[in-house]
Design brief:
With about 475 residues, the chain is of the alpha+beta class. About 40% of the residues lie in helices and about 15% in strands. The protein has a ten-stranded mixed sheet, with helices on both faces. A two-stranded antiparallel ribbon has the order 4-5.
Amino acid sequence: MDKDDEMLDLPATKLAALIRKKELSPVALIEASIARVKSLNPILNAIVTDNFEAARIEAKAAEKAVLEGDELGLLHGLPVGVKDLEITKGLRTTFGSKLFADNIPERDQSSVAALRREGAIIIGKTNTPEFGAGGNTRNLLFGVTSNPFDISKTSGGSSGGAAAGLATGMMALATGSDYGGSVRTPSGFCGVAGFRPSPGTIPAEDKPVSLSPFSVLGPMARNISDIDLLLRAQLGADRRDPFSVAVDYDLELPIEAADLSSITILLSDDLDGAPLCAEYRQLFAEKMQILRSQAFDTPDGHPDFDGADNAFEVLRGVNFIAAHGQKVSQHKDHLGPFVIDNVERGLAYNAADIALAHSQQSKIAKAWLAMFEEVDAVIAPACSVPPFAHENWTVSEIDGTPMPTYMSWLALTYRPTMALACAAAIPCGLDKHGLPFGIQVLGPPGSDRKILNIALAIEQLFATTSQTKRPCPDITSLREIGA
């Protein structure tokens, strides 16, 4: 392993500290990152628009600021990937759609502006399914993003480009977004960490449906401390986002690992009946044995998610009509199947259907809050199945049971969304196929820092055994494939 490889394997927190100490050049870091992208991206398709020329200029400015003793931001000099759903000034933003293939915005959205303000250097835009629709990063404009552990398989979605790029060291940090599991699913499939914050924690002023709390922006990284670093850089109140409030989160102090011996964690393999393959049900039980040996109390049980599947499908359909209905009516021939599917199913619902869905979601959210009077966190698998082959757009059946819709296999992640949960995804070793397996640590809205403290403690525990430590893809083998 050469020095560049060693550098790119370091956590973002370590890289930031080395830059501050003048022990690492931002220029060297960006050049190493660019070289890694050039060698691996043709194989993985994680980055769809690079920002190399601007990144090199910004890296020189970042190095000059360090040498002159300027005040440095939290992310000073770090290469960051930005999901192609986020608006970036002067850098192509397509939303994964042919309709926006040549779109070059004239401004940054607030989440991107926060990155730049804290000194991050955008290395490029990461691939996403069209408008983020689907648990598979695949679109008609750029094609598929491959899993770095098996390039014949999906990286998950919708933040699959970010997950694949992080897993292979193309970037130190990456932005993501999560509605039905768009941070958590690719994190689970690619062996990285991700966080779905409480609604409004990271302002999202450009959401097409501003009064929906379900879609949130969330940080992605290779470990939980790095998640915390990116979250602290991006959170803040913005009155343009009706859910954005001043969050009780210490911007100066990093998170600390919780004392697992003093907390109660509910272990729920299928979150009240969500689809889950038998292989992963057994694997979850086996891997949770290490947690049971350390935590104070780890009862088995399930939250109350009665009606969650209907509530999700109906409310998502309505939101898609608002966001993309006009596109479907005017440009259907240029759109992929999932956006069309969501809009057309949404149009089939009537007012009574929508009223019922709102009522179901409200009951779920109340029951979720009440449960945390007894427990500190809930843990479930991050994914219901292993990463699947590229020829499949989605998961149509699990263990012989057909999935009612293209989203049904994602119930493990979209059910917590209906409860407005915050959720940390953590790698948890490999499955029998040699592919990453992950879990999600779930809490009530507003408990972001507590959940990250718990997730950090679990991550540290998992690192002590080969069965649960974070897996790393074989960079040398990937290079040989691309040679």
